[in-house]
Amino acid sequence: MTFREAARADLPAVVRLLADDPLGATREATGDVIPEAYFTAFDAIDKDPNNAIIIAEIDGAIAGTLQLTYIPSLTYTGGERAQIEGVRVAAEQRGNGVGQLMITWAIDQARTRGCRVVQLTTDRQRPQSIRFYQKIGFRPTHQGMKYPLA
Fold it and tell me: pTM for the full model?
């Protein structure tokens, strides 16, 4: 498996991955035309040196994606955090260890950068994801909350 930053041309495939689960299907645009808002968001992420959309590839095919964001923080003695978001594995690759390799890669990137903590959230409606992250070593140490604006 190889990892690279996503290019704008990857956006249709990334959006398809984001929509390819029961929760994603309710909040992502699943039609043939990708709304301009995705391109606007991608361009903002692409310009931000603390943000990246990552593509995992196997034999040139997209096997998964995630967003990795570095957050400066006063906590942890001014230490930086790494936030992992939007983790998706292609349906044909699920159960093959792709997700674990992706998360391990992201943790290694954070460690190399000197981050003090890696954090992520997963919806409570995804108990298999919760078990997956706990198996890797993530612990439910905090109560996460979200305030929807849309």
Answer: 0.93
